[in-house]
Design goal:
The chain is an alpha+beta fold. 55% of the residues lie in helices and 12% in strands. The chain is built from four helices and two strands.
């Protein structure tokens, strides 16, 4: 993402989206939002320009999505086997052992 891309997104949102995504449905969305008012078009244009750059930068850094790193919005502890039985997988079959 460059400053020039953000400036184009501010003044001509459909053009900035077309530069980033090519002629796709996202350009039509930007055009419709621009017709509804300049501000919705600008917000969408800047969103598309910055999101694509952020995803590309993360990919180039070798980053993983937050879910792959173990962070989650779920605050419950992970599931553990019950204390009465344990399951083990041995060469494709499951062996259940009672305690």
């Amino acid at each position: 993402m460059t400053v020039l891309e953000v400036l184009i997104a501010f003044f001509l949102p459909p053009v900035s989206v077309a530069m980033k995504k090519g002629l796709s449905s996202k350009v039509l969305i930007a055009l419709l939002l621009e017709l509804c008012g300049h501000i919705p078009g600008v917000i969408y244009g800047i969103y598309v320009v910055t999101q694509e750059s952020a995803a590309a930068a993360d990919h180039h850094r070798g980053g993983l999505p937050p879910a792959a790193l173990g962070s989650s919005t779920d605050s419950r502890p992970p599931l553990r086997p019950s204390s009465h039985s344990t399951s083990m997988a041995v060469s494709g079959s499951i062996i259940r052992r009672s305690r």
